[in-house]
Amino acid sequence: MKNTILILALTAVLVGAYSLPSQAAPATNTYAQKLMEQTAAKHPELNIIGLHVTPPNGKDNIIIASSNPTKIGKKSDPDDLDVMKTRKPTVERRDDKKIFDLGMPLYTKSGQIIGTIVMEVKYSFTNEPSVALKRGQAVSDELRAQIPSKAKLFEPAQ
Asked: pLDDT tens, 25-74?
């Protein structure tokens, strides 16, 4: 009986240890999240917008802020990382969702690359990839003007 209890206790400890996230979940009341909420409200042509950044002391690039808060903390896909590495925007037509899926480099005001902006432009706004990309660039420029540093994104919202 004692062995069974000991085995169950050890199993519970091991399962708990293996289910811990690789890094702490990011806070949701940050400057970055406030930016996403304000940007989404200002741009109804966007279905969703999110920021992919590696948090301070983090090892993985993750979604740190999003107009869909359930996405926060999700690890970035290789496509999202490629946008940051190449510094080239991407546009993908998604007929199933009736959106253009955009990836834009995320820069600070001074031009330092710090991550990727992912956004979905609704077909109801445009059916042309070039127009969607142009809108994505405009939104990216608006955000850049409001980001003095990567560290600012993680500060508590005011």
From this structure: 556 789 999 999 999 999 999 999 999 999 999 999 999 999 999 999 99
Given a contact cutoff of 8 angstroms between Cβ atoms, the answer to whether 119 and 50 are in contact is yes
The residues, ordered by sequence, that sit 6+ positions from 155 with a Cβ below 8 Å of its Cβ are 30, 31
Please provide the CATH number assigned to the domain covering 26-153.
3.30.450.40
CA distances from 85 to 23, 46, 61, 104, 116 (A): 22, 24, 12, 11, 9
pTM of the model: 0.82
d(CA 97, CA 117): 19
Burial code (b: 16+ CB inside 10 Å, e: under 16) for 122-154 equals bbebbeeeeebbebbeebbeebbeebeebeebb
